[in-house]
């Protein structure tokens, strides 16, 4: 594999703890704050400078300010205000976005070795009951993650820098934005060495997710996604197995793959990771996660073609699978105990052509359900269902299983909750566990916001085929000419078509299943993918010890 296919093997920028604001190792101080009128002794070196600025600048509590500071070797401070933090609807995104914007401004003015610091947030002192996201470890980690988001360089940009320069017309590009990132502990009493390690490992996973999810449909066609996954997960302890989209094993996925030529032929990828102390299959303390990702390399809509310009941005339809790969990367770095991960990815292109599947076809799923296609643009549920069925079969043989699907699945979830929010849909056993609320809470710690949707009987009824030929239709029938409950019913379809409906709360062996629709939260396009819901999964399953032990308060 050449350097381009390996993505230059670029790692996340190194992060180091720096206890001195006046360290000559850094060429700019990026300070995140909500109020700088009075700062503690840890910031004494810059207090006078900020006080002077406060006295001459009105509205010195919002936006970004570049300040000359004689007491620093770099002579410059980028001050990024969070804005209000004490209202009912404020959350940690105020902090992470301030860090992101501050770091972005720092490298725009030429900084390549910024030092990041979080001042004490005075607005939080007004809150009677401090929210979980406002605890020191969560605030510090959110700040670092916001900065690291700004420092990501897209894979294709990194690779472009390898080419001989033949024109002065293209934008100036660099393989990295900075050479290092410093972190000033300030007043926060956490284990900062552990903190920056956690942040780096999380960002490595997000980098992998962004590389796959954000790259164009040729750079990340199915075969090159497979190559990338193998390269990134080599020597990590993750077992990677790949194969074709077998029509016997994965008939619903295979019918979608059928329309692609050999160059765009799809793949099924299985990932396995076993953490320390997770070797005993009968250990009741081991958790088994089955993570199924939608990896639609490009979605033309198939025979139900996307028209009127709405096909643009469909290279992002692989972000669900990308998030699963990124989570495996982070898990392999953090090595959580008593956790086993089982991943299944459907890497397929939904193409249009003489071999493409069409509405009215009837396909029998792996679980034996006859599915009549009535919308080829509902391909995401098709490619994941047989993998979900396979995961169900495996989950019945292990302790503490939890099945999940991740997909940029519907426009309906964006209409329901707007951009930036994931729709979580849980089956009965998952809801009994409180999994949907748990994911919501753990996501909020690090700024990934989720809304909880509920499966209702109408969601299951909407996919019943009203005929003798088939059991199900793959797309819910419109009600009154409008598509209703459009992000809940696909989960119901996958539950029934995979046979998971035989393992509801009333079954002898109930299986918890949670679906994440990330169509609205995967990030702006054009722009940088968010890697949602990687931080939520990590917060819930990889950082338990961090949340419990890092804070010394």
From TrEMBL:
Source organism: Clonorchis sinensis
Name this polypeptide is given: Leucine aminopeptidase 1
Protein keywords: Aminopeptidase, Hydrolase, Protease
GO cellular component, one term: cytoplasm
PROSITE patterns: CYTOSOL_AP (PS00631)
GO MF, one annotated term: manganese ion binding
Cytosol aminopeptidase domain sequence ranges: 375-382
Source organism, top-level taxon: Eukaryota
InterPro entries per the UniProt record, alphabetical: Leucine_aapep/pepB, Peptidase_M17_C
């Amino acid at each position: 594999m050449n350097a381009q296919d390996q993505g230059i093997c670029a790692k996340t920028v190194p992060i180091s703890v720096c206890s001195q604001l006046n360290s000559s190792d850094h060429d700019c101080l990026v300070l995140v704050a909500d109020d700088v009128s009075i700062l503690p002794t840890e910031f004494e070196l810059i207090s006078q400078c900020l006080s002077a600025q406060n006295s001459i600048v009105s509205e010195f509590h919002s936006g970004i300010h570049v300040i000359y500071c004689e007491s620093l070797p770099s002579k410059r401070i980028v001050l990024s205000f969070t804005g209000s933090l004490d209202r009912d609807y404020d959350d940690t995104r105020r902090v992470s976005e301030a860090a992101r914007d501050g770091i972005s401004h720092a490298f725009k003015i030429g900084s390549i070795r910024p030092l990041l610091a979080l001042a004490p947030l005075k607005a939080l002192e007004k809150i009677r009951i401090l929210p979980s996201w406002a605890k020191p470890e969560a605030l510090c980690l959110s700040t670092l993650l916001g900065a690291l988001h700004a420092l990501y360089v897209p894979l294709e940009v990194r690779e472009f820098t390898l080419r001989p320069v033949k024109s002065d017309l293209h934008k100036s590009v660099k393989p990295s934005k900075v050479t290092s990132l410093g972190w000033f502990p300030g007043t926060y009493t956490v284990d900062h060495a552990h903190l920056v390690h956690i942040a780096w490992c999380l960002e490595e996973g997000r980098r992998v997710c962004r590389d796959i999810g954000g790259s164009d449909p040729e750079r990340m066609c199915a075969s090159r996604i497979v190559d990338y996954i193998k390269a990134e997960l080599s020597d990590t302890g993750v077992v990677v197995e790949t194969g074709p989209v077998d029509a016997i094993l994965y008939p619903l996925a295979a019918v979608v793959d059928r329309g692609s030529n050999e160059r765009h032929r799809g793949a099924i990828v299985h990932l396995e990771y076993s953490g320390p102390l997770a070797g005993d299959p009968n250990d009741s303390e081991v958790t088994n996660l089955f993570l199924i990702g939608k990896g639609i390399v490009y979605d033309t809509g198939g025979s139900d073609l996307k028209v009127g310009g709405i096909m643009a941005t469909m290279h992002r339809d692989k972000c669900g699978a990308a998030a699963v790969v990124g989570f495996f990367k982070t898990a392999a770095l953090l090595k959580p105990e008593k956790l086993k991960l089982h991943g299944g990815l459907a890497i397929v292109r939904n193409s249009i052509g003489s071999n493409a599947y069409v509405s009215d076809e009837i396909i029998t799923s792996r679980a034996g359900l006859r599915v009549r296609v009535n919308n080829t643009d509902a391909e995401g549920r098709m490619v994941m269902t047989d993998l979900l069925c396979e995961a169900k079969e495996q989950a019945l043989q292990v302790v503490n299983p939890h099945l999940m699907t991740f997909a940029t699945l519907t426009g309906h979830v964006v209409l329901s909750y707007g951009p930036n929010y994931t729709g979580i849909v849980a089956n009965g056993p998952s809801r009994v566990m409180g999994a949907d609320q748990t994911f919501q809470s753990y996501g909020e710690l690090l700024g990934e916001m989720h809304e909880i949707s509920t499966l209702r009987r109408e969601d299951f009824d909407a996919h019943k085929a009203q005929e003798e030929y088939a059991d199900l239709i793959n797309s819910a029938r419109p009600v009154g000419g409008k598509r209703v409950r459009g992000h809940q019913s696909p989960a119901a379809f996958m539950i029934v078509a995979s046979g998971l409906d035989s393992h509801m709360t009333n079954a002898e062996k109930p299986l918890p299943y949670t679906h994440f629709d990330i169509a609205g939260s995967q990030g702006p396009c054009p722009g940088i993918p968010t890697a949602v819901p990687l931080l939520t999964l990590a917060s819930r399953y990889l950082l338990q010890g961090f949340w419990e032990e890092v804070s010394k308060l």
